[in-house]
User: Which sequence fits this backbone?
């Protein structure tokens, strides 16, 4: 089950990131061009937010089935010797929850805004922060906490 969840979480990441970048690009385009807020803008926001929440849900299920997390919470001192355990057990999950909170705040403020520019600004600000967090906390192959099979014996 763990490997299936890990694959699903990894695959959904790209769907989410593509939708998020597309929604942000359209948001910046609308904000800079001074155009109106259209159904397509709302649809992209809903799609990106839904993909993000789905990704978070799969990630939370994965969190509770992860041998990384289980091992870390059995002995939190293990993070001193291996940053991967700390990253996947605390940093990644908290950071991604914060990113989804930023996206949710942006959507909520966008719905309450009275002008098109206010709608675009709310999404642009909060979703840019969310994208930055997400890009920083994805375990890229070149990052210091990227997945490496250091925990085979667990």
Assistant:
């Amino acid at each position: 089950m763990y490997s299936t969840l890990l694959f699903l979480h990894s695959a959904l990441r790209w769907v989410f990131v593509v939708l998020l970048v597309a929604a942000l690009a359209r948001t910046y385009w609308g904000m800079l061009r001074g155009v109106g807020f259209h159904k397509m803008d709302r649809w992209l926001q809903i799609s990106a937010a839904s993909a993000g929440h789905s990704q978070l849900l799969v990630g939370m299920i994965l969190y509770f089935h992860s041998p990384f997390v289980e091992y870390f919470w059995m002995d939190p001192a293990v993070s001193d010797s291996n940053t991967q355990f700390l990253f996947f057990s605390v940093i990644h999950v908290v950071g991604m929850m914060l990113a989804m909170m930023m996206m949710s705040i942006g959507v909520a403020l966008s719905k309450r805004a009275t002008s098109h520019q206010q709608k675009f600004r709310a999404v642009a600000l909060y979703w840019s922060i969310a994208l930055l967090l997400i890009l920083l906390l994805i375990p890229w192959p070149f990052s210091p906490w990227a997945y490496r099979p250091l925990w085979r014996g667990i």
User: Anything to note?
Assistant: The longest helix spans residues 2-33. The mean pLDDT is 87. Residues 31 and 120 are 6 Å apart (CA to CA). The helical segments are 2-33, 39-65, 67-74, 83-112, 116-137.
